[in-house]
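Most newcomers find our protein records easier to grasp once they have seen one. To make this concrete, we reproduce a full record directly below:

…
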Amino acid sequence: MRRWERALPAVERRLGTGEPPTRLEVAVARHPVRTGAVCGGVLWVAIVWALSGFGDAGVWLQTGPVGAGVGFLTWGACRLARRQQTCDERTGRAEEARRVAARKREAPLSPGVAVLLSLGWWVVSSAVFWVVGPLLDIPRTLPWAATYGALLTTVSVTGAWLRRRRPGDSG
């Protein structure tokens, strides 16, 4: 196991990840048995549902090993994540990753990334309006959905811009 403790940070540095674990990742690593059981059970029921075998005991028995295998793999991955987080805390890499992540959050987005994010929001909101349009008595056509999506995106981007500006700032 000591070799894993040396190998995982090397792989992490090589892949370029340096973000601190999220609250969900910490919680999952703290409870590997529960996480494995839930993941395996959910996958098991999803496979049974996909095969439409809720009434057939044979399908339940045939797909059981798949769910158990996924559960054991998830358990192992969670145990490795827990060891990695413990090693990071012990060596001080976790605090360094938190500082680097805080600096990245403070840095403004480049104009190209901001435009791409706005276009992405426009596409998603247009799709939502296209799907939900008939429920709101909006004609289900792409021009209407795109127009409402553009309006929603414009309001969202403007609101974020106004919230970001502070009193006394110029520009």
The mean pLDDT is 83.
